[in-house]
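Lab notebook, design round three. We kept the backbone fixed and only want residue identities now. Task for the bench partner: fill in a sequence for the structure below.
Input structure tokens:
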């Protein structure tokens, strides 16, 4: 029997679209957009609609794997946990720093990890924590933390009410957005234009988003900070700055405008690659618009001036009166609560410790992933000898892929919680598989900080785990017990321990007695109990019976399409968590870094270099979807090059070419297209499904080109240690098999 129209929130990306799922006893059969979802209103993309293929993928692991005689074999859960118990605790006992953890994107959207992973990490006790945040978001988090007091307190573009939006380094018509939950981005842009608004896109490539824009600025890579300084210099010279709703809460605006003044459009234009008149007109249009907002994403983070670029976006919004104003940059009020609703704050969560080898700074509790390989490969006290990966593929996500794979192969022990044998997990000693995507409830506590409309939605589990599958929080319970030397720790005892801490915190937040709080969430257990605690103590919560009309998990269960709390509302000054309760728009660390940009103006303007940028693809969400949702041909990961650059190298469309950087070389199919500006080439990320030990048959049939083999893990943005993926200097020439090592093909 097929059960139709089961509600589900897509867990794959930050659009969090509502889906309708048809299920049979084995899992999802078909998926459709949910037209009644209060947040996504009938939008869904190819990735979400492909969830059935993901869940039914025959290559997905369904039983644990244990390495024996140099090869991974299927094993029982008892065998897998026994192998972990034999090998991991002794390494940690010698030195807590001998272990490291890499947590991938899927774990960030899963309540099992949100609620229970901290207990596991506490038992492991290592400071060596890594995630993709240090590959794509840390500069934005740093700017947000310095200005507003928390890395999650991101000011979001109120696209539904603006008249002018400036998009930098983002292609939401393909990616569906990032650090912004905005399903149906294309429809929203069309609505903006229909009401007379304008869309401006700054990007070296004419992306799908740029194609629908009123103005595409084909800027040179790594020049976003220069463009923004040029705009601010015009605003300073014109005297058109206005703080608007933030007036009385902002310090340092005059200092920032004074710093920007010398960076006139004429000064920055040679770096940006567009005429100074265009920069001047854009600045004046932005300042004069009744409602306007600037929004930047991954392309502005993964470059040499990433922190400056993301800071200057905030500065532009602030000094033109766009902050906390409808149609400008506004703050969400997450229904599950979080740093922007909880009391406290005022601490700068960066630089509290540093990596052992290179001394790169911690940010938001983790170290830059660019130093993962060297922490494993460099001998000495504190050398990482054991690695735990959770739903992540650093062998294809982290720069310097050759170093990363060398490092993974050298480990004394590696444990992976993952659903595939991929380029990373093929090196593991134990692999623990996750159950199907529909076997757990879904409420994205992290992404609710980025919603462009306040809403609360819950998807209960639609299926039980299949025989032999183990929920991830059960796995974390067993692993935590092993690390504590308590292998008999039960799932129930572990759950109660985590819940006891959550109950104490919820009681404090809601100012209610602990016994009242505990009774209110009975008889729930597991992630649902912990979620109910968050909802009841959150900004819309019932405060454990004090407000009968307030939000609870039971209320969400009665509203399967969600509850809409309306458009974003002004939140200043309550949203601020800075030490002063004010916005210092001129943090010393960022003001000082402008000198680095100034000193590099001449070199940055050099026109004779060919540089590479990354790009997104509609059916890809990092590397792991390439097997479940395969692309049609290797051409999907082709190198994009402008016709002028191809002609000067005697290259034609379809040629096989060698791409070299200071870090390595790869081969790729060439696609000649004027969608990319001259002097720039582009490769998509997440590819390179080659080598032995993989169980991803469709991905390996079209392995594609590994762009991270060209990114150097030693080259990072200095303030955050984030890897540089945009603006890498490369050489491209026709392929000659005699000169290319086999491993690079």
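Proposed sequence:
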């Amino acid at each position: 029997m097929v059960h139709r129209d089961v509600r589900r929130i897509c867990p794959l990306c930050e659009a969090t679209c509502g889906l309708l799922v048809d299920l049979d006893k084995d899992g999802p059969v078909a998926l459709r957009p949910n037209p009644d979802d209060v947040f996504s209103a009938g939008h869904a993309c190819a990735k979400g609609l492909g969830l059935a293929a993901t869940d039914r993928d025959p290559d997905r692991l369904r039983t644990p794997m244990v390495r024996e005689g140099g090869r991974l074999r299927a094993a029982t859960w008892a065998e897998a946990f026994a192998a972990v118990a034999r090998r991991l605790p002794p390494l940690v006992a010698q030195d807590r720093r001998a272990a490291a953890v890499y947590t991938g994107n899927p774990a960030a959207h899963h309540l099992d990890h949100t609620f229970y992973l901290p207990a596991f990490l506490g038992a492991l006790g290592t400071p060596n924590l890594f995630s993709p945040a240090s590959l794509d978001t840390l500069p934005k988090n740093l700017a947000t933390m310095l200005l507003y007091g928390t890395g999650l307190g991101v000011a979001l573009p109120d696209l539904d009410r603006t008249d002018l939006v400036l998009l930098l380094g983002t292609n939401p018509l393909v990616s569906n957005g990032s650090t912004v939950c905005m399903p149906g981005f294309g429809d929203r842009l069309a609505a903006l234009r229909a009401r007379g608004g304008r869309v401006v896109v700054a990007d070296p490539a004419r992306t799908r988003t740029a194609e629908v824009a009123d103005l595409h600025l084909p800027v040179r890579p790594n020049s976003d900070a220069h463009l923004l300084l040029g705009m601010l210099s015009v605003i300073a010279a014109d005297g058109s700055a206005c703080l608007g709703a933030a007036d009385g809460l902002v310090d340092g605006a005059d200092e920032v405008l004074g710093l920007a003044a010398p960076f006139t459009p004429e000064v920055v234009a040679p770096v940006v690659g567009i005429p100074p008149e265009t920069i001047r007109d854009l600045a004046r249009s932005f300042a004069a618009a009744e409602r306007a907002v600037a929004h930047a994403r991954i392309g502005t983070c993964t470059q040499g001036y990433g922190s400056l670029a993301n800071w200057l976006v905030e500065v532009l919004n602030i000094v033109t009166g766009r902050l906390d104003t409808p149609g400008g940059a506004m703050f969400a009020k997450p229904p599950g609560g979080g740093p922007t609703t909880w009391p406290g704050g005022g601490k700068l969560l960066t630089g509290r410790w540093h990596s052992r080898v290179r001394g790169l700074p911690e940010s938001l509790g983790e170290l830059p992933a660019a130093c993962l390989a060297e922490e494993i490969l460099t001998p000495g006290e504190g050398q990482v000898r054991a690695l735990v990966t959770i739903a992540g593929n650093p062998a294809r996500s982290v720069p310097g892929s050759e170093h990363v794979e060398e490092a993974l192969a050298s480990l004394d022990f590696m444990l992976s919680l993952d659903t595939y044998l991929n380029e990373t997990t093929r090196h593991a000693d134990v692999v623990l598989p996750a159950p199907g995507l529909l076997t757990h409830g879904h409420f994205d506590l992290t992404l609710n900080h980025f919603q462009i409309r306040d809403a609360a939605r819950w998807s209960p589990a639609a299926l039980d785990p299949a025989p032999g599958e183990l929920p991830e929080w059960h796995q974390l319970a067993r692993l935590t017990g092993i690390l504590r030397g308590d292998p008999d720790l039960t799932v129930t005892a572990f759950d109660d321990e985590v819940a006891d801490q959550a109950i104490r915190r919820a009681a404090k937040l809601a100012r209610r007695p602990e016994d009242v709080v505990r009774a209110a969430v009975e008889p729930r257990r597991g992630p649902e109990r912990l979620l109910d605690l968050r909802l009841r103590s959150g900004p819309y919560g019932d405060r454990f019976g004090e407000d009968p009309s307030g939000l609870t998990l039971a209320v969400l269960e009665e509203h399967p399409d969600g509850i809409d709390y309306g458009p974003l509302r002004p939140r200043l000054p309550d949203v601020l968590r800075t030490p002063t309760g004010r916005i210092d728009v001129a943090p010393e660390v960022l003001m000082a870094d402008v000198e680095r940009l100034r000193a590099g103006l001449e070199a940055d303007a050099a026109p004779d270099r060919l540089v590479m940028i990354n790009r997104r693809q509609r059916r890809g969400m990092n590397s792991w979807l390439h097997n479940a949702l395969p692309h049609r041909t290797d051409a999907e990961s082709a190198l994009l090059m402008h016709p002028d650059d191809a002609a000067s190298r005697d290259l034609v469309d379809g040629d096989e070419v060698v791409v070299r950087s200071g870090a390595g070389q790869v081969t790729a199919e060439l696609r000649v297209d004027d969608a990319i500006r001259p002097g720039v080439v582009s490769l998509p990320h997440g590819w390179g499904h080659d080598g032995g030990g993989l169980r991803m048959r469709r991905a390996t049939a079209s392995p594609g080109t590994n762009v991270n083999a060209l990114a150097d893990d030693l080259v990072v943005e200095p303030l955050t240690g984030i890897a540089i993926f945009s603006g890498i200097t490369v050489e491209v020439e026709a392929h000659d098999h005699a000169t290319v090592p086999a491993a690079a093909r």
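Keep this in mind before ordering anything: The radius of gyration is 25 Å.
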